[in-house]
Write a structure and sequence with these properties.
about 350 residues, seven-stranded parallel β-sheet, four-stranded antiparallel β-sheet, 11 helices
């Protein structure tokens, strides 16, 4: 996942064989919220007359990536939508912005949109600098530490029924347009998947909640972002759940990552030291025929790196790419060799 702001990491991932990217939108909701939600500065929006989720802006972002040999195959960002999530006045205008984005994505050939139902904030952590393996810094969460954080709403101000009703209203408006545009939505779990956080209920916190989501619209455009770290914290058997949801062709997108702990007390890990059988997860994706976007997600910050963007350092992502690519080729098989470039070594006869 990259923002449309070129940086040295882009050359490194190309050297690691990555050609496709999941994009943030310059100035949109997650672009501006994701690091602020864990107490970091994050990105600055770029001044432009084009709305970030409009076709002109998305086309510009595509062109920026293309100049560096990268193709956008998914977007993990939207226009602001808290009024939609909370069912508040003004939600129809926000839904119309989402429809504008979906139609633009369809015309521009971007088939996957990741969204979430985390109102007011984004992913939550109580620490972003836990000492992990070899001194790497990892993010973590302890429910006992939440007492030091200010509430995001008054007690009882937001209810689970309110969020579910608002989600049904949203899907009724959006799924027919997504089907027509050829875009698959993928709902991301609440992170962490606990019943409530800072007085805001979390409804996307269990496998049963995702079964309910899928039942609201029996369409492959109404799908799941299978974020393995969060599903692992739901005390679920991931390979079994992948086979269930993937067998229905409802996994739109995968965050391939791992954790150690429970939803009330956990920390992120390197891919090879978490609590999940990741090789078996990859086998499950292959068995159900999953061929959508799969990306590294939260990773440790490694030696020599700044922790200004916790869980999104360069070196940890390069480690993750190598780990995932190895599993992928061992399960899906090795793809054909690419055509040699001008200065590449000849392919043996």
């Amino acid at each position: 996942m990259l923002s449309p702001r070129p940086e040295p990491l882009w050359k490194l991932i190309k050297q690691c064989g990555v050609d496709n990217v999941v994009a943030l939108l310059n100035g949109a909701e997650q672009d501006q919220r994701m690091f602020a939600s864990v107490g970091k500065k994050g990105f600055s929006g770029t001044a432009s007359d084009d709305i970030p989720w409009g076709e002109a802006a998305i086309r510009r972002d595509i062109e920026i990536f293309a100049e560096h040999g990268l193709k956008v195959i998914a977007i993990e960002d939207t226009a602001p939508m808290d009024k939609v999530r909370l069912g508040l006045p003004g939600r129809d205008e926000q839904i119309e912005n989402i429809l504008t984005q979906i139609r633009a994505m369809g015309r521009l050939g971007i088939p996957t949109l990741c969204y979430n139902w985390m109102a007011i904030s984004s992913w939550g952590r109580t620490s972003v600098d836990i000492i992990g393996r070899g001194g790497a810094l990892v993010t973590g969460f302890r429910a006992a530490d939440l007492t030091g954080l200010p509430p995001l709403a008054e007690p009882g101000e937001i209810t689970e029924d309110q969020l579910w009703d608002a989600l049904g209203y949203f899907l009724d408006a959006v799924i027919p347009v997504a089907e027509e545009a050829g875009v698959r939505l993928g709902m991301h779990p609440d992170d962490p998947p606990r019943p409530v956080g800072r007085n805001v209920p979390h409804i996307m916190r269990s496998p049963e909640a995702f079964r309910r989501l899928l039942s609201l619209h029996p369409s492959t455009s109404n799908g799941i972002t299978f974020c393995q770290g969060n599903f692992a914290l739901m005390d679920a058997d991931l390979p079994t759940l992948i086979r269930e949801f993937g067998g229905l062709d409802r996994i739109s997108f995968v965050h391939f990552r791992d954790v150690r702990g429970t939803a009330d007390d956990f920390q992120e890990t390197f891919h090879d030291e978490g609590q999940t059988d990741l090789p078996e997860c990859m086998r499950a994706y292959a068995e159900v025929g999953f061929s959508g976007p799969m990306r590294p997600d939260h990773v440790p910050t490694m030696h020599g790196e700044s922790n200004d963007r916790p869980a999104y350092g360069a070196l940890g992502r390069l480690f993750a790419i190598g780990y995932i690519r190895g599993l992928e080729q061992s399960v899906y098989g090795k793809p054909p060799l690419p055509e040699p470039t001008e200065h590449a070594l000849p392919v043996p006869a």
